[in-house]
Design brief:
Layout: E1 5-13, E2 16-25, E3 29-36, E4 42-48, H1 49-58, H2 65-77, E5 83-88, H3 90-101, H4 114-118, E6 120-127, E7 132-139, E8 141-143, H5 147-165, H6 172-211, H7 214-286, H8 293-308, H9 311-342, H10 368-385
Antiparallel strand pairs: 1-2, 2-3, 3-4, 4-8, 5-6, 6-7
Helix pairs in contact: 9-10
């Protein structure tokens, strides 16, 4: 804002055309003048920085002096839709106050003072999204312009025009200079209009950013987006931690199962080894000197045959074996009694009792168990042949 500047514009109030002039004096004084174009009545008011800031503070929406001046300038030039102007009398102002306070219409008492009746109030209205703020500027009536002053002004202007016309000698050079100056003037006017348009557009953008606050809305939206992203990140982090803990538990369970399987494998290997040793011991015992090799081979054949026989034949064989075993034991007992009584031996069935043979080895003694097993084997082979 310049320290000294002036703006003049025409404005319509209730169908009447007025000329509004705003002057900035020294950068801290605002001078507003309103003139009725038809009647030439004039109202004028001067306001300093303190008055303007107190006025805006009383309305509940404080504005600094520079911002208030920019708002008034935008209303004069109609550069923004958020600010507007109105010219009211004292009665109109009281009606506006009653309507704003929510009270019903009341008859307004006309003031006795003529100064109040003739005073006008320039209302600067600032419209936001959900509210309207009114800033009233009182303008005392200063009357109509003095005719003598007007006549003197007219004479001065005529003399200046006459002097400009007769300045310099007329001629071709003067006409060329005039045409050149006129073109330069028109070019400057076009440039001035372009600069004014750009300036007003820039000022409108600044005012919208100050009044409506789109930047703050965008910041709030961005903050909301960032908060949502942080919440999603926290949820994903918790989910990942739960999955990792679950995987760790599964891994520990699998490792425990592997250890158990390894222990079972070691136990089975030890058992297989012991069974292999027992099998070798059993094979060596079956090949003992008391039983010939042919007898061991026959025994193996008998085992294979026994596994292929049916269960019923096994049961019958067991019964026959038990019966034959009892008979052989009775027979063997009677023979032993006869041998002890008579003093004879079973030379026909057993070899000679000489302790040492010609080869130097001792003959084996009679083994009843081997005898019974051999008898059972022969009986079983006979049954298989049948």
């Amino acid at each position: 804002m310049e320290e000294n500047s002036s703006i003049t514009a025409s404005y319509m109030f209730r169908g009447v055309e007025y000329v509004l002039t705003m002057n900035i004096i020294g950068g801290n004084v605002l001078e507003v003048e309103v003139e009725d174009r038809m009647t030439a009545d004039q109202w004028k008011g001067t306001f300093d920085t303190t008055y303007i800031e107190d006025l805006t503070n009383k309305t509940g929406n404080f504005k600094q002096f520079n911002i208030f001046v920019n708002m008034l300038e935008s209303a004069l030039t109609e550069a923004s839709d958020s600010v507007s102007l109105d010219l009211l009398t004292y009665s109109d102002l009281e009606s506006l106050r009653q309507r704003k306070q929510g009270t019903g219409p009341r008859p307004v008492v006309q003031p006795k003072s003529s100064a109040i009746n003739t005073k006008r109030y320039l209302i600067l209205t600032y419209t936001v999204e959900f509210d309207r703020i009114h800033y009233p500027l009182p303008l005392p009536y200063i009357g109509k312009p003095d005719p003598r002053l007007l006549q003197e002004t007219i004479r001065e202007l005529r003399e200046r025009i006459k002097g400009l016309k007769h300045k310099g000698s007329p001629g071709r050079t003067t006409d060329q200079d005039y045409m050149r100056l006129k073109k330069e003037y028109e070019a400057l006017l076009d440039e001035k209009e372009e600069l004014e348009v750009e300036f007003l557009q820039m000022k409108k953008e600044i005012q919208e950013s100050n009044f409506k606050g789109p930047a703050s809305k965008e910041i709030k939206i961005l903050k909301t987006v960032v908060k949502n992203l942080e919440d999603d990140l926290l949820k994903e982090k918790n989910k990942h931690q739960k999955l990792s803990s679950k995987r760790n538990e599964e891994y520990r369970d699998l490792m425990n199962e592997v250890e158990e399987l390894r222990a079972n494998e070691r136990n089975l290997r030890v058992r297989v080894k012991s069974l292999t040793n027992e099998l070798n011991i059993y094979k060596r015992s079956r090949r003992s000197p008391g039983i010939p090799n042919s007898q061991s081979s026959v025994t193996r054949g008998r085992a294979i045959t026994r596994r292929s026989a049916s269960r019923e034949r096994s049961l019958s064989r067991d019964r026959d074996m038990s019966r034959d075993r009892s008979l052989s034991r009775d027979r063997f007992g009677s023979q032993e009694q006869r041998r002890t009584s008579s003093g004879t031996s079973f030379r026909a069935r057993t070899p000679s009792p000489s302790p040492i043979t010609a080869s130097g080895t001792r003959n084996p003694r009679f083994d009843p168990t081997s005898f019974v097993k051999e008898k059972e084997r022969r009986k079983h082979e006979a049954e298989l042949k049948q």
